[in-house]
Fold these 4 entries.
Entry 1:
Amino acid sequence: MHRGLVDEDEVVIEVDDHTVSGRRGDSVAVALLTAGISTLRHSPRLGAPRGIFCFMGSCQECLVVINGKRQLACEVLIEAGMSVRTTELP
Amino acid sequence: MNSRVELAVLGAGPAGVAAALAASECNVSVLILDRSASAGGQVYRRPTGPLGAQQLKKWPDEVKGERLREQLRSSAVSCRFERAVWSVERGFRIDTVGPAGVETWEAERLLVASGTTERVIPFPGWTLPGVMGLAAATALLKSQRVLPGQRPVVAGSGPLLWAVASGIVAGGGMPAAVIDLADTRRWVSSLPALFSRPTDLLKGLGWMHSIRRKQVPVISSAAVRKVWREGASLVVEVVERNRDGTLRREGQERRLSADALCIGHGLLPAIEVTRLLGADHVFDAQAGGWKPVIDDQQRTSIPGLFAAGDCTGITGAEAAQLEGRLAGLTVAHEAGRITDKLYRMKAQSLRRHNLRVSRVGASMAALMMPAESFIDDIPGDTVVCRCEDVTCAEVQAALAAGAMGLNQIKSWTRCGMGPCQGRVCGDTVAAIASRHLGGRTAVGAWSPRVPLVPLPMDDFVGAFTYHDIAIPKAAPL
Amino acid sequence: MGQIEYDTAVIGAGLMGASTALFLARSGMRCVLLDRSGVCSEASGVNAGTLTMQMTRADLIPYAIKGWEMWTNSQEWLGFNPGVVAAPGLSLAFTEEEVATLEHRAAARRARGAQIELLTASKARSIEPGLSTEVIAASYCPMDGFAKANQTGFALHQALKTARVDIHGACRVERVEPEDRGYAVIGRGEVVRARRLVLAGGVWLEEMLNWLAVRIPIKTLVNQLAVTERIEPVMRTVIGIASGLLSLKQFDNGTVVIGGGWQGKGSRTTGSTQVIPENLIGNVRLAVHAIPHLVHTRLVRAWCGFEAETADAMPVIGEVPGINNAFLIGSIHSGYTSGPFMAKLLAQYILGHEPELPLFDPSRLVDNESYLKNDVN
């Protein structure tokens, strides 16, 4: 999704083994969404792909590992150099 | 140890902020707690990024939100954001977890203004990435200023459906279709309420007009039967309903290709705190379901415990502010900061105003409510508890085996044991159980539990040594 | 006078009551099981399910061993899978004082037949690699493990139905009245008649005994438990500590249950309970101290369960003192482990056989004043 980012608004983070460019103020969930990464984890029994659902910190579906800690992608804003790992959880 | 305040407010949305300001203006000491980084709740959620050239225009609510945050900032209210409340006790003691680790707060009185969560009734494919709630889409548009998809299917009923669809259009997207899950006849029955608030009606008509003008396909009285992935796209199968509410048979469905599906079936009052504190609740389907019983001063059945806003029944942001204000003034009056006469006058005026406003809000809420029968359309192999992958058939098997209520279903199937703590599946499982057990009251509600939200262990335990741990005396040998 | 419909009415459908009813029914008795909720819906439904020698009172070890054998062969007596995992148990020491405690506790239990040996820290870590480096020794028992309380409740429910026990759930018994040939069990809107009674009321046993004018004081413990969300395997044994106040286990679904006897607040009269935040933090800190990797997950749920305790902290199983055809069972510390076996013993006794191991005479605990006044039957 083209966003016409101005340099100082751009924030680069590491997602799994590559870099993703987001915008200052994006939540991790949005940065991933706009980078085309929609599968964030897999369900515990059926191993089904899961991603953003409620976007208000309620459903717990967007749980990823941010800088080594389990956090909800929809609640954390991106910061330069942040490391995000997806599809490691339940 | 934080000092004891006269009023603690849980939730910094329109109800909570109005209450905090009203009480604080009368010199009541007020603390407001919210897990977000700023006030506004969901409806006035603060955009977190800059408004760049390519970005979506400001939503009208954004101005209201900014004003609310400004008023709060310049008040004497003590604001503590990024705190998640994990436990509350009568008296009142509030335990939070946040950037400063675990903290404890004390208050003479407590106002719960926790708002709502969204209801989505399960259907095959609803757990796929790319399928999200309608309120979720609103939050993406408003606070993150991004489209949920360039070409999403938008499904729901009531004003939120049209707000999201037109918001997508305004942002440069093109909905693949707008699916109205409601019976169009229900719109008609709500018109009298809408006429009493012409600006709301005009706003709604404006949304619908913008959709029609772009020739976005609109399908009414329909259901999303299933969704699946085909390559990089989602395929959304939509089927219309017969007049009696049943779904039309095979061969009558439409398939839409989309990059996202935004779907919602109404809002649910968030009542975890009022349940935990043991307040009386009543089931009111039209208001969103279970809600705390409150009197005309926003008091619950527990002394010192107030509730205001959508968590007391869905009536919208404007009603929430009025209820919040009434609760704040009631506290001020109770604390002797305003006279009987002044309180009565203001309270009466607020109630009168709220009567008009909440009538509309309630109609809007009723429009969003799914019909009972939607539950019966869920196929057996569809997951109803997302956290634990429990299917509809497994829930029904537990009922057939003799499960007596929601908590026994939880015990036997694990529904509700996952990290969402039953927020997403609770209403669906209760509705399914209700079919077998003869009503929502018979089904019961989740046994209240702490922590109210999942607690990161590292924040919870903090830094400690073995000797810090005050181990109680063990049982005899 | 109404017809006697049942050979035995069991009041209280927790682990003890449900198992007793099951064994009696399998031996041919017509049984009814009553509970104000459902099968294993109260304390037995929220139990940690630990099967342990190391946390069991030394005097109860012979019973716990039998109980463990039953649990790990549950197909035989239950017929439905309660999700039992047999696993070794490690009890940890972090200080020299705690090592001495472990030795003392292990010796007492070995004397009663349990297989418990002391291990060095490195040996303990070879069995449980995730252990904290601050562990200096551990006591080890191969005969430990856990059941899943909620799954057990379901299994018992199914087994009871198959054994044709009539289950009266949502039936709060208000009193019992001795009649000519048995008892009338009176609940709201219903009366059930049985030849004999078994009182299996958990923390409410004292109130039940009052129906028969017998007084045995029962203390209510309010045990706190908590569970994490799913995490990759971080432990494979059942973990405790020398002081006894930690119990840790990881289920096959990846969740870790944390307990050990830290107390919450509660009232058995109202049934309401409340977690004490400081005690939850203390319990969880102990857990993280033992298995440091737990710090990477999240705590999802905490709750309290009632536990009954008599004046001498030993069980009461046998006849209701001074009353004909009425029996009781309860107050068994670490009752989950020995529960099914204790129920089997009582059933043997009721059926007129010599129980495999001695019961626990309730008359030792009767408040004498009321015992002497007792003129019922």
Entry 2:
Amino acid sequence: MKIAVLIKQVPDLVEGLEIDAGGKALDRDSLRYIISEADDHALEQALLIRERTGASVDVFTLDVGEARDSLTTALAKGAERVTLVAAGLEAAPGSHALAELFAAVLRPQNFDLIVTGVRAIDDLDGSLGGLLAGLLELPYVGLIRKVETGPGGETAIVQKEFPGGFVTELEVKLPAVLGIQSAEQPPRYVPVSRLRQVMKTAKIGEQAVEPPQAPPIAVERLFKPEEGAGASMLEGTPEELAKQIAGLLAERHLLK
Amino acid sequence: MTNDVMVIGEHFQGALSQITLELLGKARELAGPLGGKVEVVLLGHAVEPLTAQLGAADRLSIADHPLLEHFVPETYEAVIAQRIKQAGPRLVLLGSTSVGLDLIGPLSVRAAVPCFDNCTSLQVREGRVVAISQLYGGKIFAEYAVPETTALVAVVPGSFPAEPGKAAGAPEVLRLAAPPAPRTTFRRLIEPPPGDVDVSKVPLLVAVGRGIQNADNIPLAQELAETLGGAVCASRPVIDQGWLPLTRQVGKSGVTVKPKLYLALGISGAPEHVEGMKQSELIIAVNTDANAPIFGLAHYGAVADAVEIIPLLTEQIRAASG
Amino acid sequence: MMPTLIRFGPVPGWAILWVAFLAAVAIFAWRVTTLIRLLLLGRYENRFDRIPQRIWRVVVYILGQRRMLEEPLIGIPHLLIFYGFVVFLLSTNSMLLSGLFPSLHLPTVDDNRFLAPVVDVFGVLVLAGLAVSSFRRFILRPAGLQRTIDATVVNSLIASLMVTFVLAEAFRSVAAGAALKGASTQETVWVPFGNWLAGVFSGHPALVTHAIGLYYFCWWVHILTVLGFLVYLPYSKHLHLLAAPFSVFFSRLEHPGMLRPGVLLEGGMGAGRLTELTWRQLLAAFACAECGRCERACPSFQVGEPCSPRQLVHNLKMQLFQCGKVMMSGVPASKLDKETCLLEGLIPRDELWTCTTCRACANRCPVFNEHLSITIDLRRRLVERGELDKRLEEALRNLGRYGNSFGQSERKRAIWTQGLDFKPKDARKQPVQWLWYMGEYHCYHPTLQPVTRSLARILQAAEIDYGILYEAERNSGNDTRRVGEEGLFELLRERNTAVLRAADFKDLFTMDPHVYNTLKNEYPDLNGGRHRILHYTELLAGMFQEGRLKPARRLSYGVTYHDPCYLGRYNGVYEPPRAVLKALGLKVKEMPRSRSFSFCCGGGGGRVWMEETGEAHSRPSESRVREAAALDGVQVLVVACPKDHVMFSDAIKTAGLEGKLAVKDLTELVAEAI
């Protein structure tokens, strides 16, 4: 079985985000990129399937941000092949454009299963998984937290999350695209020594594709929510704060 | 393309989902200025009883078929795409939910129309439809015009009020064709383990997030909840660690709650969580990060360590109640 | 009177003795060979250098019994038993020789006027020593000291050896005396106890008549017991008799603050099998006498965590012996697969992760076993395999990506400076005399930031020329290394070394003992002796001494000082903090466990990054604050390490000591006083 994992780089929220002078995009100088969390889970899920069934795992990512590092990490975790997709873009494009690029890369390759994170923090025009499934005319299921392969490797049995702790189990005929919410176990840790070893011998494949046709999204402005506009902030030592909170509750007759 | 606004309805376990009413209310609001009608597309099996709640719509397009009893992305998508191509509405509103998110991508491609996600605001301004979506964990908002073509918009649940969607009326009913045999089949529904508290029914909630630091501190929160006469619930990271059962999860993939009191302790306020509790009557938040998004939503806040505050608060409440 | 000239039936005594002797020696030699083969399972490590230093160690710690004497109750009896053994070696050898070659009339110790009394006295002293040690083991029952069959057998054997010896002497005397009345035999020399006993026995005619027979009996029992002991020794924990001198000789001479670098083996970094440990690490199993000192000193063990250095070495021993059994059945060493497995074998994970790396164990061990190096090698392998506690993984990920375990942006490194009315010099851009390496806790942790500012103001006011690295600073890697992530440690070290080399400074100081330890001992490219690396308490002490700092007011607290593990035990810095407190006019009341016996706060070795196992009944930090609070008139526990500060502040709350004891960093007291 051949599995393709599509990962993307998103801004790292730890570093804080700033809007640039134009007001329509993020200030790229202050950005640092990290792998999208759900994509990390998608990779982990693929590796778990690989461990169980001997499937091969190919990882693709767009050449933006710390893409190479993500691919090296994927190799260190056990992926067979990793590919950097170069489309001559300066910044990460929207999901439609991304889906177009990956569809071009994947169409000739006959993967049985394509997995990616169900959503990313910068998804404005939908998420990659569903759009890609549409372009490749494959079935799609999202918000997945467990994947098993059916007998003969012809189907995938997936568990899809619903609110309130409910889960539905669906069976999908392969080839299919899956949007992963969380893998069956958290993404594995790669010891730095192994990472550095892999970095020395790593072969990162490169594939060039035509820039996408899909037009960029016309954002009129970006803005930050008003900070703390909602809450009246309480001040004091922890003991004083506890007293104040208890007082608020008492005022509203919420205490027994 | 017409000026109609189409709503993709959702239901679960025999009940109409709240998001459907929220979208219906918004659709009603937008249809006026746009000069179009409101249509609700509802798929399922034996859905007649639900249609009574959809009086606010002008038209109901119903596909009733055994294959549609449980949500299967492929089958729903096929029927809805067909209807969108037929009807050519101006706007298609979906919930940014387990249902809507599976549909929006494939629909966008099949119907060859643009789509947008994470929408929290929709307005008609000078003939244009202007939307705002939240991004980057709720830290940045993007305002944009929805293109002048059929467009799909997935809306964050809780963004619009449900009341306007509850109007009475007698919409015309349209029957949609049965779906083709799919490559995706429903196997079974897995219910959450029973016997635990249904936090959506508890009026006083003590909610813990990552700031609770480790499992050892959960009993402290439980003590506080007991003293208050309420229950403990949590955001996703706490549930993922296994410190509390899945039934206590509040948020997008968990339960939506509307308690009298929501004590958000060590919760940052990520959108996925906020979605599940933003309608709480009184929200008091404690977090060490002064910039935590929760403070934008809460009524009262304190920049402090939740682990420190919890036992102190328990004491204070005991003293006040005793 | 030659005991081996008597006949047992047709067979002469000396023949039987020869058989017994050769058999015993053969079994002993065969067993020792097996043990050496077991040691050879381990990796090679060069411990054959600096011979004079090694010999000196043996002199101080084996002949001088220095570590044993730290606990005089057992130290002195053991000293007696030890020297008793040495002395008896002489005596027994001569007895054996004369027994094996009876016709040669070889001179024996018993007949030597000078040596015989010494042996005699030692016989009794050893018995006295045994009495005390048995009392301690079976009645007092200190933790870690076990009442096993092995221990009982050994004690009994030694006791019977002494008893039979003294009795033999006595009966020989009586027999000689009786013989004198009849025919003449060699005169026996004067031995105090032997003669005294002989006097007592002489009053009993039955004993007198049978004296010679009893002498022979006692002699034979003695010699056969010796041979029996020889055979038993390499199978019992008394193996430490043979192994201890070697384990001390081959002990590690390098600074304990410098860990042995990771070696990349077939299975990866660290060790997962016996064959991946070094022969010296394996020798620990044989040298260990299961005295329990390590366990008694271990802070994790004290609070009920499943961490026990003694158990670790014991399990190692059991695993080795299992190998031995299989090897003796003919399987060659290269084919031992299951038997050499450590991580799937007898060593549970929890035992490895609950170690705080405080080194209290190795500090006490009389045979210089390296419990820590084994633990860390095993941790390295667990990291390699990705078998880590989830919180620890998160901390490591943060360290790798952001250079600090808090997961905060590196750009916020200097956020602590907000609140200062001056801007500390940027050591990346200007030359400075002192480089202040902050340490992540002093930069990011809200409890410590005020303390950091305090020191900054003190130094500014005293016109010390210092600078900081601002956003270029990363975690120094001390705890990363101790957690077993050697690769990440190397990465951090490379990066930090490059930054430090690019900066222009004369000397370096830090507030964090963990940073101090690793920069001083594990950054070879940095400190080619060019820079002095100090802990800030050393800097402050110097400033007080030079008069750059003078106290302006008297502080009236009763204080006690907690020696941080990585400052005190690891690096021997005990006096400077005390000197500062003295300069402030404070009288320091010492806790029972102070200086090198200081009790760890429980935060080291990455423990602050891990979940607790839930098995402990309390925390090391709680035990420590109670120890401080129990001192009369002490209101302040003075700390000089950020982890201590955080751990003890928490512990004071959970132990219910708020209002009775407060934690203050040394800086805070200095700030109050000047």
Entry 3:
Amino acid sequence: MTPIQLALLIFGVMLFLMVVRVPIAGAMFIAGAVGFVLQSGVSPFLNFINNLAFARLANYDLSVIPLFILMGHFATQGGISKALFQFAASVMGRFKGGLAMGAVLACAAFGAICGSSVATAATITGVALPEMKRHGYSGRLATGTLAAGGTLGILIPPSVPLVIYAILTEQNIAKLFAAAMLPGIIAMVGYMIAIAIYVRVVPGQAPESEEVEKLTFESLKGILPIATIFIIVFGGIYAGFFTPTEGAAVGATSTFVAALLKRELTWAKFLECFHATALSSAMIFMIFMGADVMNASLARTQVPGQLAEMVVAMNLAPLMVVSGILLLYVVLGAVMDELSMLLLTIPIFFPIIMKLDFGMTPEHTAIWFGIMVLMTVGFGMLAPPVGLNVYVVNGMAKDVPLSESYKGIMPFLISDTVRTLLLLFFPGISLFLIQYLT
Amino acid sequence: MMFSNALERLARLCSILGGLLMTALMLMTCYSLIGRNVFDTALIGDFELTGIGSGAAIAFFMPLCQFKRDNIIVDFFTANRSAAFNHKLDRFGDLLMTVIFFLLAWRSGTAAINARESLGASMLLGFPDWIVFTSMCIPFALTAFIAAMQTLSKFNPEEASA
């Protein structure tokens, strides 16, 4: 078999297994294993497996992922979200559609201590959806807002996909987090503008006026724990007191303490934090191992490297190549989960990007591309037919048809598109905060 | 599914063990940070322990994930098929997961034996590698067993509609 046929076979096996509901991690693992054994034989493959779990699981840089996940679940179970939403609602209450904007603000604030979009969506939905219903918001707007707001969990640091990008491309996590800050805030404002326009253009989606508690000194307490934790974690990382992994440990500890002070963390909820952390961490690291086998096998065919050279030799405009890759991500993200997509494609695409000249330093190019990739991941969490966030929020709403929720996210997808184009043509937005870091 | 209750308890116990381990690492890191930044007394090799410990913890997280079938699948292409048909496909997936976790458990076990003979250890603390491999081998074996039982499970309409 020629290398190209082999690479196609590996991809074919993976796609077939994915279509017949084999877990994506397993599909990558098996397809990679088949390719590996065909090229190198059984015993080199077995030797490769010897060290696979050790190298991936017992890895200091990657331990930041379960720590940030644990932190997110402490925040979810710790009763921080209710007071946070009340605060956010009273800030935005004066505007039409204010409760929906408040939900977006609450998602953004929660995203500052949670690195997962599904966890953010689920947590804020738990406190915001009943309130929005009570005030007469349509199921369409309410679920759309919360599904879109949830993506702020990954757009605003900490962010699990960004950590994975940093590790795959050997970039500085702290710098990537700083780069994501402004785009994250732009995303939040963009969602609020989308709501403001939507409630005016489409009648009957939001109440004409809503009774929301006034912003008082007392309600400021709602944002206090999160603000404190965020300042400690990111202040500490940027002041050089600790590494991102240590920051995650500090963040998890302080969130744990905040939850204890709220007196909402019962023993049962504490154990629930462990179970939830177990499920998301195991799922992520299984994908890591599957992608490792797949990538090792593909690398042996040398096709990814040749592909990169071919693209570079075509002498396309660099911006066209990036746009092409991002478009591919949007299409792939529609049927595939975003993590596996990154793990499979970044090793192939990143070398291509680094060979193109964008008029920036290699580090800036890498950081900017990371932010662009993150945007498409957020997009994929919402876009039909398989937007994970939409499923989660819609599942919690129970009485809203899925098609209504998908209609509800359209304004936010438009906002996403505008923002992505903005960041694509103006890399300076992502790189602005980096210059203040040493 | 055979032994469903016992396996669920074991899987949950494993995830609690892993969670407690992560909590311990989290507290140790804070202790080390306070020592380093306030009292100028560094805890040597704390990052090694964090890496090794979270490796074991993540391995202990695997059984629950498999038990709950929480690994991400693409259900876009089969969403319109009957629950019974999809259950058959899921059992095929479980079979492949059995093979994968059997491989992982077997090779981690082999690596543990090798590391014990070659006295492999971590750089700073000299923490023996075979303990790390063994702490992964055990939960992987349990995960393989859970996946095997899922492969043999019969279709239960009540479970499917729940």
Entry 4:
Amino acid sequence: MNTGFPFHIPGDALENYALGRVPDADCAPLDEHLLICPICQAGLEEMDEYVKVMKAATAAISQTTIEDSGHIQDRTARLLRP
Amino acid sequence: MQPTTQVQGPGNCDQGSGLGSKNAISAPAADAGLNTTGDNQSDNSESTHSRVDWNALVGRIQSGDNSGLEDLYGLFARGIRFYLCRQLGPQELDDKVHDAFLIVVQAIKRNELREPERLMGFVRTVVRRQVAAYIDDVVHSRREELHLDVGVRVADGRNNPEQTAAFQQKVEFMTSILQSLSDRDREILTRFYLEEQTQQQICEEMNLTETQFRLLKSRAKARFGELGRRKLQQKPFGALFLRTSVASEH
């Protein structure tokens, strides 16, 4: 009897899987479990979406921060102009 | 067969009426002891593959028992479809799922599966090879075939306008959550999700314990879920955020 991954995949492992950070050598039990477990498939689907949202949101914030710092530099430069 | 329970795959993977969409979870999978109730991560019940008698299943297929094929299909159709769609997108998905089944069934019938209890591993190998072969083909044809047929139909992998709007709204939720965090907490999440730094690296460089790191991530998730739920109660548009999945339907 195969008991490689007898329980549902924990959240952290699912997140690493969604982020593509599980080493190839450790992927087999996760892949196999995901092949037959609709609960974990749904969980991964949600995690994929969450990761995408998080990436987009952190990118947006970083962009805003860069633009803000650009504006501050411009304004500082203007103020310092003789 | 029981009524079907359709689950959205990533992107538009649930489209079509081929193999995968016929009966996403069929009776055999349910009979095999599949737990389709409860929360995703909190449900720690034993899952399907430790309950399935792989030897008996393989034996039934080898002896020409059609119920064996049905059970095999019921167990793997959805997962194969999910895996292939996640890796390759929805294009020609039904054909790919069908091909994978054909390879698995033929191998079983030819008695090429030496360890029936490793059937899941075998299916995984078949599907991974299929993904690799498909990618090879695409790379090869891009390199070799210069005269592209203008009339070739290519599936549009982009989301539809509703999905795009829903995604944009989620990003706005998350942005507002991130803005409410301290600079340090925001930096941690940015390093992890955007800059793809490892947990270990972040903890070392920002002098964090593993527990603090996990707590921050789970708080962000919880706040995202909470804010999403609150917004859902306010807007009819929010119905788009409801996941149609097995877990939520039971």
